[in-house]
Every structure is written in structure tokens, then in C-alpha cells.
Amino acid sequence: AEVKKIAVIAGDGIGPEVVAEAEKVLKRTEEVFGYRFETEHALFGGIAIDEKGTPLPEETLTVCKSADAVLLGAVGGPKWDNNSKELRPETGLLGIRKALGLFSNLRPAVVFDCLKDASTLKPEVLEGTDLMVVRELTGGIYFGEKFRREGSQGEEAVDTCVYNVTEVERIVRQAFEIAQGRRKKLASVDKANVLETSRLWREVVNRVAPDYPDVEVEHVLVDNCAMQLLRRPASFDVIVTENMFGDILSDEAAMLTGSIGMLASASLGEGSFGLYEPVHGSAPDIAGQGLANPIATILSLALMFRTTFGYAEGADAIEAAVSNVLNAGHRTSDIAVDKSTAISTTEMGDLIVAAI
Amino acid sequence: AEVKKIAVIAGDGIGPEVVAEAEKVLKRTEEVFGYRFETEHALFGGIAIDEKGTPLPEETLTVCKSADAVLLGAVGGPKWDNNSKELRPETGLLGIRKALGLFSNLRPAVVFDCLKDASTLKPEVLEGTDLMVVRELTGGIYFGEKFRREGSQGEEAVDTCVYNVTEVERIVRQAFEIAQGRRKKLASVDKANVLETSRLWREVVNRVAPDYPDVEVEHVLVDNCAMQLLRRPASFDVIVTENMFGDILSDEAAMLTGSIGMLASASLGEGSFGLYEPVHGSAPDIAGQGLANPIATILSLALMFRTTFGYAEGADAIEAAVSNVLNAGHRTSDIAVDKSTAISTTEMGDLIVAAI
Ligand SMILES: CC(C)[C@H](C(=O)O)[C@@H](O)C(=O)O
Ligand SMILES: CC(C)[C@H](C(=O)O)[C@@H](O)C(=O)O
After folding, report:
1. Which domain-ending residue is among A261, A296, A329?
2. Distances from the Cα of A235 to the Cαs of A13, A129, A238, A239, in angstroms?
3. How many domains does chain B divide into?
4. Domain contains A296
5. Does any ligand 1 atom lie closer than 6 A to the CB of residue B194?
6. Residue span of the structural domain in which A68 resides
7. From the UniProt record, which GO molecular function terms apply (chains A, B) (predicted)?
8. Going by CA atoms, what residue is nearest to atom 2 of ligand 1?
């Protein structure tokens, strides 16, 4: 097989531990399916601040740009929380999204059977929940001009939210296509009763909708969506929304599944290139203790296989291995009902490798 | 007693029905407690668009400005949803907030014992939930400059989010004071890792916090707050946040209590003046059928008594009457488990009046 290049960014906290397990899985798929991968490690986030004086070193960007895909563990931690803006891990995250043109963040929120009791929602409400949040990732208030100025009422801060038709159209069309491959329902979330950017957003959705006649579209106001996710989560299929609303709603959606430690995500640009990472954070409180659950990172690898490489067979095998290991009753401590029987990060990785 | 003037805005949908019941309660408190009220009705929202060609007629503002408080039913409906911006009910809502200087929106989210099964959250998670969202209401991206322009990538829309120190300080201090009268915990919600307005917000919170040494403050990022509301709702006491985040989080918080049809809200300015309204909307689908639940509006009146008039005795009596009627098993159809035993809007109003 052709050699695929993967940039591996372990990051901070539990990042290195979970990424190490995903790399074992990667190796295993080479043996079983004959894939060939070349991995290159790069520094990013807090560790890059410590070692290179910047969260996103030039070399890291170069490594990512020459790769076919990026696997990211997690970044951030209290150590860097009070740094100035340029020296914060989040600034690296925003920078890498922009530099790599990753305009679309896919956040599937599914309920794992073995975890449905972990949700704070009633099981009958959760039943059948399987949704995907498609979040615009390089526009909106995240990247608009921001500044301070002296106003008549004292110091003022300003953030600017900007969207152009082209940006909206590419993410909306992608969401329609994703819906076509799923249950063919698209909820476009905005605040069109207040925001001009939302009115533009809604116009674009309405203009392109006829190109996807098989997809049923509804417009949902963001405040109402925050409620409906709680009331009828299973009724959503694909949700498409702008950057800030997507940040909030994708986290709400992930949390209501009860499976947040198990969810994968993909950030995509033009073409097949993508950055894959677990939804969970760097969990500095449990870092270095072998307690982290590597499943979300391993499932992010499966998403990479399917989405960037077109390796459906390998992706299926990884997902099946995860299911089998869970069905056999193995749990890391975050998802174990009886903590005394919990297995470690590396034990979980080894079991999944063995099941492939 | 001194005559208190109340501007009554029935509005659209179920607004007139629920407001009528609150007015009966008002009369009853005059008889029982010797209060004296003068009510003046005014047109607002959809009905004002139909009859006066604008959602917020000048006369309505005049009536509100000469009153001590405003009671609002609900506004809006599909009939006006596709109108141009100037002819939409929401535009009236934003206009009245700004014109009356209502910079603070208080949204208590409590669980009514008789409704705890109505929540989609597990009862053990909901147990003890009693929180108050304090939302900034006249600033931020709602009121900043908004426009379209031609950009290099086609048409662009722009919204501007602006906050000055004075605006932030007055709402934050109010939230601290509210927390002092409650469980003394304040969660300030922002997105300081991305937004300049959030960084200003956080600076102000940190600067004024020492003036309220008895209040425990935590800063919570908005995406994390959307999750924590689901995971540990009972751990929140007062949440203070900017306009857009408050819109989303207050609706999420209301929905998770399962009691959304019963929640009151207050919008306050300088001094004791306030606008009081139920959290629920105009529910055009059930309007005019006697199905609406008047309790949220009646409880909004109690909130007005307590907050604007300092009529604690009357407020207590209204709240006790509502409790007694509910404890006796009376339910409107929205909260009835067995719909066949549900009583009508006016029956519920009459029972509460009789219980005062
Ligand atoms: C860390 C932060 C800047 C980031 C965001 O808001 O995009 C995070 O919350 C996420 O969702 O990836
Ligand atoms: C109707 C709309 C403009 C309004 C808002 O967003 O403020 C509503 O959602 C609310 O919360 O009162």
C-alpha cells in the first residue's frame, strides 16, 4: 500500500498516554491489513510553550502540512492558564485550525450501549440518540477583529463576528452531504431574529437546500436548540452551525450522551486532509497515572481511516475491536461502575490491539 | 396604600389568557392586603404590528415609562415570522429592553416538586436544583453595530459585540448581591480563552470580587457551563453572564428543571422599576383554547410584588396559593399526567385566587 503520513501531536496532560495506545493500534492495522504509515511527532500546546516558547512552533506546522492527516491527543492545563494570550495552548489550537484551513469540525454524539446509564438523562429520553454536530471552525467571532478602546463609559472591549457567503456555503453544503449519508435530516442553528450573520447564514441554507431535495431542513434558534437537545435528543440527525454556537452545542450534545470520554472528532479542510482528536480534554488531574481512557483517541483514528484514507476495512475493524472489548466487560476507571475492577490505559490499548 | 401603576401588555398567542388570570390575582390581593393598583393596557408585539404598524408603539413606551412595573404575557407567532426586521415582534422586545434600560434579566430555574418527573434529567441529578441566571440584557452582540458589506469572498455580514466596564460592573455587582441573598456562590460564565469582551468581563469580576468576600466565585467557560448544567445542576447557585450566552444558558437551565411552563422572570433597570414575564413563549398552537397554564405569569406577579413593590406579604401569599393548588392535585393540561382530569386556564386562575 501507499505510505500515509500521519503527524502525531501528543500534547499535554493525558495526551501522550492516549496517543501512545492509538499508535499501537496503528501498527497493528499495518500487520493485519498491510497499510503503511509513517508517523512524525511534533510539539504543540503547553509542552511547546515550555520547550519552544510558543504553543504552535513553525516546525509543527511544517510537519502537519507535509502529512496526510494529524492525530492530536489533548492540549492545555492549569500551568499555562494565566499566561498571556500568545503563550496559551488555546491560541495554538486556534492557530493550527486557521493555518491548516480546517473549516469544519465534525462531532458525532452517540450513546454507547454500555454507557447509557452514565448519562444524567433518563434512558428513555436518550434512546436512539445518534447525532452529528457540524461546526464551522475558522470564522465568526473567534477570528474577527478584537480590540480594546476608550469609550464614553470607560474602557470597552470589542469582538467582531464576520461571515461571508463562501464560508457559510462550504460548511452548509458539507453538512447537507453528511446528512445524505445518514438519516437525511438537517437542523441549521442560528439566531436569525437578532444577528445579521445568522440572517446571512439562513439565506444561504435556504438557497442551497433545493440542491439536496432528499434532506429535510429545519431552522432552529440557538436558544431553542439548547432546550430541544435536552427534550428530544434522538430527533436530531445532523446539526450545522457557526463557530461559537457550535462550541456550546457540541459540548452540550456530547455531555448528554454520557459517553464524553469515548467520543471522537474530526476537523476537516478542503480535500481529504484532516485533524483527528478525542472530544475530551487533557485531564491534568489524572495525567501520568495510567488512568486515562484511550478509546476516544483510538476511535478518532478509526474516523481518520474512514474519512481521510478511505480505509473502511481498517476503520470497521478498530470500531469492532472497541465494541468487543467493551462487551467483554473491560473498563477503564472513568467508565467502570466498580472502580476496583478497572484496567489501565495500556491494558485497554493492548486488549483492543489484540481484538483487531 | 399608595397606588402602584402597572402597565399590562397581554401580547400575542396565549398572552392575553394568562395575563387575564394574573389580573384576577392582582385584584384579589387588593381585597386581602389593601394594596391599590392602577393598570393600563398597552399594545405590543404582533398585535401592535397588526393594529399600529409597529411592534413597539410610542404610546406603549409612554405607558410603560409612567408605570412602576410592567407585566408582559408573551409575544410573537408564525404570522409575523417572515416579516422584515422592523415589523417583527422580537424587534419590539429588543426595543423595549433598551428603551426602558432593562439591563438585567433574572431567570430563576427551580424544580417544582410536583413536576420533577417532567424533567428529562434523572431525579437524583436534579435533586436540589435551584439556580438563578443573571443575564446582561442591553449590551453585547445583540445591540452592537450590524451590517452587510461586499467582501473579497462575496457578500459578508458583520455583528459587533461590545461591552464597556460600566455595563459589566453594574450587572456583575447585582449578581454578587443576589448571591449574597442566596447560597453565596457565583459562577461567572465567559469565553475568556477566545473573546476580548470576555477577558474584560473576567477582569471586572476579579476586580469587584473582594467587595463581596462572603461570595465564592468561579469562572466557567461557556462551553463547559453548557456541560456542567447537565452534569451537576444542583451545584449552581447564581450564574452571571453576557447577553448571548445568557440567552442560551438560561433556556438550557429552564428546560432541565422540567418546569418551564411554571417559571417567572424579571428584567430590571436602575431603581425598582422592572418588567415581569413568564419564561414560556406565546404558544400560538394552543392559543384561545383555555389550555394555557397561567402559573408562570402569576408567579411573575409575585416576583414583581417582592422585587419592585417590596410587598413580601402579597408575594408570599401568591406563591403559597400556587403551591396549595398544585398540592391539591390541580393541573392544567401541560402539566397533567392524566390529561382527562386537566382544568382550564380560568379554572386554574380561579383556584389560585380562592386560595389567597
Ligand atoms: C479551547 C477552545 C479555544 C476551543 C474552542 O472554543 O474552539 C475548545 O473549546 C474546542 O471546542 O475545541
Ligand atoms: C426573542 C428573542 C429576541 C429573545 C432574546 O434572544 O433575547 C428571547 O429568546 C428571550 O430570551 O427573551
Report:
1. A261
2. 36, 7, 10, 11
3. 2
4. yes
5. yes
6. 1-102+269-356
7. 3-isopropylmalate dehydrogenase activity; magnesium ion binding; NAD binding
8. A90
Q: Do A197 and B90 touch (CB under 8 A)?
A: no
Q: Structure pTM?
A: 0.96
Question: Is residue A118 in some structural domain?
Answer: no
A141 alpha carbon, closest ligand: 1
Q: Which ligand is nearest to the CA of A136?
A: 1
Q: Is the CB of B90 under 6 A from ligand 2?
A: yes
φ, ψ of residue B247 in degrees (nearest 5): -60, -45
Total number of residues shown for chain A:
356
CA B197/CA B195 separation, integer angstroms:
5
Task: Choose among B120, B156, B251: nearest Cβ to A226.
Answer: B251
Give the type of residue at B148: R
> Would you state the cell numbers that stand for residue A72, as one nine-digit string?
492530536
Residue B110 shares a structural domain with residue B249: yes
Strand partners, A151: A154
Q: Is B251 considered catalytic here?
A: yes
| Bridge partners of residue A189, in order along the sequence | A220, A241
A251 close to B (CB below 8 A): yes
B276 with B203, same domain: the answer is no
B223 is catalytic: yes
Residue A138: how many CB atoms within 10 A of its CB?
Answer: 21
The ligand that comes nearest to the alpha carbon of residue B226 is 1
Ligand 2 center to residue B247 CA distance, Å?
A: 7
Does one domain contain both A145 and A256?
Answer: yes
B116 is in an annotated binding site: no
Q: Are residues B176 and B255 in the same domain?
A: yes
**10-residue block means of pLDDT along chain B (356 residues)?**
96 98 98 98 98 98 98 96 92 97 97 88 95 98 98 95 98 98 98 96 98 98 97 97 98 94 95 97 96 98 97 98 96 91 97 98
Asked if B42 and B5 touch (Cβ cutoff 8 Å), the reply is no
In a shared domain, residues A154 and A94: no
Query: Do A325 and A346 sit in the same domain of this protein?
Result: yes
State the binding site of A: 77-90, 97, 107, 135, 223, 247, 251, 281-293
The C-alpha angle B190, B191, B192, rounded to 5 degrees, equals 95
What CATH number does the domain containing A79 carry? 3.40.718.10
Angle (CA) B349-B288-B44 rounded to 5° is 90
Ligand 2 centroid to residue B43 C-alpha, Å = 19
Do B69 and B46 lie in one domain? The reply is yes
Q: Is residue A301 part of a domain?
A: yes
Q: Which of B247, B276, B311, B334 is catalytic?
A: B247
Residue where one domain finishes, among candidates A236, A261, A286: A261
For B289-326, b/e burial (b = at least 16 CB within 10 A) is ebbbbbbbbbbbbbbbbbbbbebeebbebbbebbeebb
Q: Is B354 on the interface with A (CB under 8 A)?
A: no
> Any chain A CB within 8 A of the CB of B338?
no
Q: Is residue A289 part of a domain?
A: yes
How far is residue B26's CA from residue A120's CA, in Å, rounded to a whole number? 40
- Tens digits of per-residue pLDDT, A173-182? 999 999 999 9
The CA-atom distances, in angstroms, between A217 and each of A36, A77, A170, B79 are 41, 39, 17, 20
Rounded distance between C-alpha atoms, residue A321 and residue B199, angstroms: 45
List pLDDT tens digits, range A81-103.
889 999 999 999 999 999 999 99
Please indicate, yes or no, whether residues A245 and A326 belong to a single structural domain of this protein. Answer: no
Residue closest by Cα to atom 5 of ligand 1: A247
Neighboring chain B residues of A164 at a CB cutoff of 8 Å: 151, 153-157
A130 catalytic residue (yes or no): no
